[in-house]
Design goal:
By secondary structure, the protein is of the alpha/beta class. It has nine helices and seven strands. The chain has a domain of 127 residues: 3-Layer(aba) Sandwich (Rossmann fold). The protein has a seven-stranded mixed β-sheet with strand order 4-3-2-1-5-6-7, with helices on both faces. The chain is globular.
């Protein structure tokens, strides 16, 4: 009766926008949710930078397609899937992440959509699958009578971590640690798997949170 919800970029995959920034040498794309707490501000900055540099979705694909999972990510997920239900919950986009899912064993994935215009494939904006989806996914699973353990590394993971029954940060930057000092922190996927097992051992049977009947 335990679900594990995981952030993706910075935990299982490299930060996509950093890879794009490195590929094209664009410093404007180096900011991530580890530095900018407000996601909409960050995405407006990114889309503006793409326009300034003429980067369409088609031009981004070589950098995206060259991204591979972080070392140990598949083994980590396989270990978790042998003991828990697992979902990946990301503020990235299906357009970026889906090509990477086969290498991770096709996990359940919740994320958003880019708005890609026809013709040249200009990225005009983005469409959230759901507002505040990270804590919303956790809360929905709890309503289904699951206990939830959540893990991530950035400001945009804190709502999910705080909503979950147990939360863990993995190699967060100092500002994120300072914003949530009560949450345990680990520095590797192996340590995160151990921490998840430890957190699971402290959880009793999930208590039904919905209406009776």
């Amino acid at each position: 009766m335990i679900f594990v919800c995981l952030d993706v970029e910075g935990v299982l995959l490299p930060e996509f926008w950093l890879k794009v920034a490195d590929h094209y040498g664009i410093d404007d794309l180096r900011l991530t949710t580890r530095e900018v707490p407000v996601y909409d501000d960050l995405m407006r900055h990114r889309i503006s930078a793409l326009d300034r540099h003429g980067l369409t979705y088609a031009r981004l694909r070589p950098a995206i397609d060259g991204i591979t999972a972080l070392a140990g990510a598949r083994a980590f997920l396989d270990r978790l899937r042998g003991r828990y239900q697992v979902a990946l919950v990301s503020d990235s986009f299906y357009d970026f992440l889906m090509p990477q899912m086969a290498a991770l064993g096709h996990p359940t994935l919740f994320c958003h959509h880019l708005e890609i215009e026809g013709g040249d494939g200009r990225i005009a904006g983005y469409r959230r699958r759901q507002e505040d989806q990270k804590p919303a996914v956790v809360a929905a699973l709890q309503e289904l009578n699951y206990s939830v353990i959540a893990a991530g590394d950035s400001f945009n993971d804190l709502g999910m971590i705080r909503t979950a029954d147990r939360g863990i940060l993995i190699h967060p930057p100092p500002a994120v640690t300072a914003a949530c000092p009560e949450v345990p922190t680990v520095d590797s996927l192996e340590a995160l798997a151990d921490a998840i097992d430890g957190a699971a051992a402290t959880l009793g049977p999930a208590r039904f949170r919905g209406a009776s009947g």
